[in-house]
Design brief:
Length: 429
């Protein structure tokens, strides 16, 4: 059975940072899908003519976009959103690590996983790379809930063996055993994948990072994720802890952790050498502007990442990030670049790309999701501004499709997301 959804439709099947015409949008557009796959995208009249037997859902007044992709978000941190007044290391010590320690209680972890996944879907996020828990049982709970949710989730047990709370630390041997078991059980099951996840170099010895390298070799398509160059005090600490590493990135490189399936969050303060090596490795950076502003970490050097050819995509970084909305995260990316001298002005199409197709590429899913091209999975969202809302008033007066997109990132939030589908199946709405 083929379904056609009729709506205003926008996506970025090409990279807007390398050429013009990346935004494809249709005022009276349509998406045709069947069996979880996209069959056609374009003007309604044309798509309808090509699929005369399809069931048509008239969603005019709504905007259809690809499912949003969050490249960096912490599931155990829902409760610390909004913990104000602290920079990274104090924020971790006083607010965040104590909250993460609560996930030793499996009931609390299970409930947190469910709440988190529901909130992701509610915000229009269909795919996410999720920083997990330090507790194997809590990580198991996340995978179980993610499997049931229908979302595309990559995640992994968070590994640390120093400089955290003692209850969040393990040993390299225990970390290996627990991670190995989770990989066997969850990697490649349904829409789930495993990501090897040392918390950050500050909380890992060489022996723990070596275990991460060993784990990465154990299955095809495993992801790697961690943090990089987020905060100046953190970077100074890494320098002290790893006197033999030339820079922060090198602490990961030495164990084979930086490659095409690696996603490193933040990179607010990179050296030129690190940017060159990230680009050569085809590794990706998760750009998390609301977190960078909230923790006072600094301004992401977006232009330098572009100049060096480093891949990057958006992450909300909840709970340092201020919510799970990639619309708001896109606006924050825009704000941060505009507010600081030398920032790179982002266009609406570029922001849409960073919230969708760029994330798909970072997570190794570019052939499957990220835009609405025929053949890809039917992962999409419908955004309908609530009646009487400011967004409704703005969209009713929009002069162009590009302006509509700019207004969406500025004003649309979870209240406007009315339907979310992964492979054609509803996961919200
Ligand atoms: N570095 C190590 N852990 C964290 C975390 O939980 N959040 C952020 N923003 N940075 C980190
Ligand atoms: Zn983070």
């Amino acid at each position: 059975m083929t379904t056609i959804v009729r709506a205003l439709l926008a996506h970025t099947p090409r990279d807007p940072f390398v050429g013009d015409g990346a935004l494809e949008a249709f005022e009276d557009g349509a998406l045709a899908f069947a069996g979880g796959r996209i069959l056609a995208v374009g003007d309604f009249a044309q798509v309808r003519a090509e699929h005369v037997d399809a069931e048509v859902r008239d969603e005019r007044g709504a905007i259809l976009l690809p499912g949003l992709i969050d490249c960096h978000v912490h599931y155990p941190q829902i409760a610390v959103i909004g913990a104000m007044g602290l920079e990274l290391l104090d924020w971790l010590r006083t607010r965040t690590l104590p909250e993460e320690a609560k996930l030793a209680d499996l009931d609390y972890a299970t409930e947190t996983a469910q709440v988190f996944l529901h909130a992701l879907a509610r915000n229009g996020t269909t795919t996410a790379l999720v920083f997990g828990s330090h507790f194997p049982a809590a990580q198991e709970a996340l995978f179980e809930a993610a499997d049931a949710s229908g979302l595309r989730i990559a995640s992994g047990l968070v590994l640390s063996d120093r400089n955290l709370l003692p209850e969040l630390e393990s040993t390299p041997a225990a970390a290996y055993e627990a991670s190995h078991a989770l990989i066997e059980r969850w990697h490649g099951r349904g829409r789930l994948r495993y990501a090897v996840t040392p918390r950050f170099s500050v909380s890992c010895t060489d022996a723990m990072l070596e275990v991460c390298g060993r784990l990465l070799g154990e299955a095809e398509d495993l992801l790697f994720t961690s943090h990089l160059n987020e905060n100046r005090s953190e970077i100074a600490l890494v320098r002290e802890l790893f006197p033999d590493a030339g820079d922060y990135l090198a602490t990961y490189e030495r164990f084979g952790l930086v490659g095409e399936r690696s996603v490193l969050a933040h990179d607010v303060h990179p050296t030129a050498g690190e940017l060159t090596r990230l680009a050569a490795a085809r590794a990706s950076v998760a750009h998390c502007p609301s977190s960078n502003a909230f923790l006072g970490s600094g301004v992401f050097p977006l232009g330098r990442h572009l100049e060096h050819g480093v891949r990057f995509a958006l992450g909300t970084d909840v709970g340092a990030g201020t919510g799970l909305s990639l619309f708001k995260e896109g606006l924050m990316a825009y704000h941060m670049q505009m507010a600081f001298p030398g920032g790179r002005r982002l266009a609406p199409a570029e922001i849409l790309y960073l919230a969708t197709a760029a994330g798909a590429r970072a997570l190794g899913l570019a052939d499957e999701v990220g835009d609405l091209s025929p053949g890809k999975s039917a992962d999409f969202i419908l955004v309908r501004p609530p009646e009487g809302s400011t967004l409704a008033a703005v969209l009713a007066r929009s002069p162009s499709l590009e302006a509509t997109l700019g207004s969406l990132f500025t004003l649309a939030r979870e209240e406007s997301v009315v339907e979310v589908r992964v492979a054609g199946e509803p996961v919200f709405g």
